[in-house]
Structures are given as C-alpha cells and as structure tokens.
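Record 1 of the preview.
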Amino acid sequence: MAVDEDAELGHAPQKKKTASDDDKRRKKLVPGGLMKAVLRPGGGDLNPADGNQVIFHCTIRTLDGVIVESTRSEFGGNGTPVRHVLGKSKMILGLLEGIPTMQKGEIAMFKMKPEMHYGEEDCPIPVSDSFPKEAELHFEIELIDFSKVKVISEDLGVVKKVIDEGQGWESPREPYEVKAWISAKTGDGKLILSHNKGEPFFFTFGKSEVPKGLEMGIGTMSRGEKALIYVANQYLTETSLIPMVEGIEEVHFEVELVHFIQVRDMLGDGRLIKRRIRDGKGEFPMDCPLHDSLLRVHYKGMLQDEEKTVFYDTKFDNDGQPLEFSSGEGLVPEGLEMCVRLMLPGEIALVTCPPDYAYDKFPRPANVPEGAHVQWEIELLGFEMPKDWTGLNFREIMDEVEKIKGTGNRLFKEGKFELAKAKYEKVLREFNHVNPQDDEEGKEFSETRNLLHLNVAACYLKMGECRKSIEACNKVLDTNPVHVKALYRRGMAYMSAGDFEEARNDFNKMISVDKSSEPNARAALLKVKQKEQEVERKARKQFKGLFDKKPGEIAEVGTTNTEDQVSRESEKDNEDDPDGDSDEQHGEAAAAAPRTSFLSQLWPSGRRLFRSLGLQRCSIL
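->
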C-alpha cells in the first residue's frame, strides 16, 4: 500500500487532541471539495456520531478508475476493514465529514479534492511520496458497522464494544481469579480461538496469562457482561491462550465474563490468602466492620489435607448458631479476624491460613495438629457498629469505659499487648469529647485517664518499646509531677532502657513525695544497682584489653545477649491496676520487660566514652 498501513488503520500512536482540532480543519472546507454518491443504501435511521467506532472497507481510485489502494483482498488488500473512533482517531478530512452521513450497510462513493484527503496542508496521516496526494480521487466506502465503544488505551489499540450489559459495579483487577468464555478472530474474520464449551477459561488477573490488551479490556467488564474487545498487535503479548501472535495485526475477542473472585494477599507473602466466593452488600471498604464491631459469622474450619477434614462447623458444632464476637478482642485466631474485617455483610470468603495466624498462637482444637495450615469458609452474616457515645451522660460513658478497659486487662493477661494497647488508646481518643460537669466527675475523669496512660505504658514496656513507655508516663507526670505510680513505671522503663541515673531519680523522688512507697522504691533501687553492676561486669569482660591495642589492631568484637531478666515488683497501691490486682499479678512492672541489647544498657558515662572514641557505630548487640 502507498499509505502508511498503521496510520490508515488508526493504530499509530495518537497525540492528545483538543476539542477544537477537527473544527479548525472543517473551516478549510470549500464548495465542491467533497461530493458523495450513494451506490447502495444502508438500513436504519441512525448515523455515526462522535465517540462511535466505525468499521468500513475502503477502496481508493483515480478518476479514470485506476485502483490506488484497497482494504479488500480482491483488490490487493489484506481483507481487514478499517476501524476508527470518530472524534478520536486520526482521519482524513473527507472521511471525517463523509462517514457521519452514512448508514449501516451503505456503500457510497466520495469524490475528494486533494485538500480533502492526503493533500491537505498538515494532514495528520503520513503518506508515501509515491501516493498521488495532489490528485482528485474517488473513495469507495462500505460502512460495515458502527457502535458506541469504550476506548481503553489512548492510542486506540484496545477498544471495547458492549454486547450485553453485566451486573453490579465491580470489575476484575489484580490479583482476582477470573472465569470467562472467550473466542477470538483476526481482523479479517479468521477464527483463531474458541473456548465456549466445557469449563470457562480460568486465569489470574495480573499474572500475564492472557494477552495484555485482552486483560485491559476484561478489567473494564462487570460480572455477566458480554463484550467484543478489539486488540491491536502492540497489545498482543504471547500467552498460553494465544501462543503465537507474530504476523497478526489485530484480534477481535468476544468475551463473556462468567465470574471473578477477589483474591487478597493479607500478609503480602502468599501465606494468608482470602478469596471472595460470594459478593456481599455495600461498598468496599466503607461498609466493612470497624474496630470493636460486634460480628456474627458462620464458619467452617478445614485442614489442608487431601480429605479437607472439617474440624469445626458452626452450623453443626454450635447448635446451628453463628459465632458472635467483638473485633479487636482476640477471641478468634488473628488470620480469621483480619479477613473478616475486610468483608461485607452477606459475603462468603475462603481463607487459607498459616499456623502462626491460626492455632499456633491461639487455643488449638483437639483435632488440629500443631503447625497445621488451615482453611476457613467464612460467611459474614452482619455486624453492629461500636456504640456511639454521643448523647450519653457522664456515668453512662464511664460504664462503657469500664467495659472496654476490662477487655484490655484481659488481653494484657493473655499476653496480647498490642490488642490491649489498642483498647486503652480507643478510650483515650473518646475521652477527647468528654466534658465533666463538676469537680467530682472531673476527679474521676482525671484518675481514669491517668490510669489508661499508665496501662498503655505497661503495654509498650512489655512490647520492648521503652521510649514509648516513658512518653506515656510523661503524659501523666506533665499534669501531676508527683504521681507515684507514674514515677515508678517510668523508672522501670528507664531501667529497661539502660538509663540507670534517670531510673534512680524517679525512684528517689517516689520516696520524697510518698513515704508509703519507700519499700517498693528501695527494692527498685536495689534492682537498678544490681543491673548496673551486671552491665559493668559484662562490659569489662567483653572489652577487656580492647582499648590497650594500637590503632589497626582492634580485634573484631563478638556479640552477646543479655540473659538476665528483672524479677517482678509489687506495689502497695493497686487500686488503679487494670484488673484490680497488684503489678506482680498483672505483670505491669518492668520486671518482665523484654531483653534489650547490651549496648543500649550501658551506663550514660560509658556511652559518652564510646562516643568520644568514635565507637558509637560498633556492631555490638
């Protein structure tokens, strides 16, 4: 062909057009520049409009009948009709004006002066030097079809025509699992694929298991939709569906989207996978359960063995009643709760879960082996939102506080410190909207708030985050600098962090402000001294002779872990403990704080010494 084939087909990369581009070109129209003769009438009352895709055969002749080029195979073309989107594709001015006057099935002859075809000044479609662009030409056009389409790629390489509308608003996306009936033809009508019998074609979205352009088109479809997806060769990647694409200019895929399942990798490592097998009601994630929601679920637990052994089913093992639990309270395995929190009411999901998010850290049913991977089929029947405190009086609010705080205390005793902290922090956030009405309410409010901050501090200490524990204690001491329990807890956090001088200051201050706290403070000071001596002893042993060596002779220093742990301390005043017991029972004293690195426990003067020697970056654990 004399005309650039890609440009003629409308698949050349498009620069973004402004709304006035074609209008400016139309101003160049002159009387007699474009003339039309109908050779065969079309059918219907409609004509193509902007946004419609038009499919047509085109044969170009000189005025004396010599064929210059054609899309028809009988005239030397490849047999593939031209496909354009009006208002978006690059088109010669004569066709831009002429095709909207035609009807489906019509054949017309357009006589064009040079300025109406490729002889137009600044014509948007390139043409070879041998093309007679300065001559008047006849364009024989057969309008095969036109329809509304969705342009999926800006260069028009992927376009979708909807045949039957689907249901719902959701479309497949990575990494959904998709089932679809698929058939495919080349642009000239040759059948190359027919997957319309047996089972629908199955693939995982985003895994390059179907050609890129086809996946782009399916990504705009809804469940049950049937569509024709036109894919140009630049979007025809080789896959198992169509292993050979070389030499194919364009493929028309007819697709019926049967079903798709949302697949969510909860941990990002492929171990905890949630597959949605029935849609819920509402919009994700706005209509999913919130933290502290009361959830109602049916679930069936299965082992990942060949028999898919069922070890629990609420419909049989719970008298047919659903399981009810509040999210965030640690009452179900972590993996199950993580997935339920991302479900909509009425949704059914299939969850595959590793042991560390199932029953290795949760009471294990008798028929679930240790270290077993499990699968849950979960149906979220519904949920109730957390109680809104708006409009509650002070006493009603404090009753709600006690309920949530009690849950936090239970979680703390069970060693679920992160969940316990979340409960305490929830109440503290709600406290921002509480306004005590008198001095008595103000005192109760202040005491409860301080207690919650100290409980948060205890959680942080158990989690090994000493600095955050100190910050939580400071929120109490900023309002009451002589709060004995806050001083004690901060002192324990300082000791765990290796800041022995700061710890001593807090314990000594306890004695000065409250003589009744002296036994506990003295015991804590003894612990500080013992811990400091232990750190110094280990430092002398580990760094013996280190600073006697000449530069360049310092041997590589090994690593060591501090094995000692601080025994638990009790406090006389246990009224404001989360569970009403002493710190020894509750475990909030830093005695059971996590092990910390050796270097972090060095006394302050030692740290300053290392810094002055330029050794603050030594890899000493």
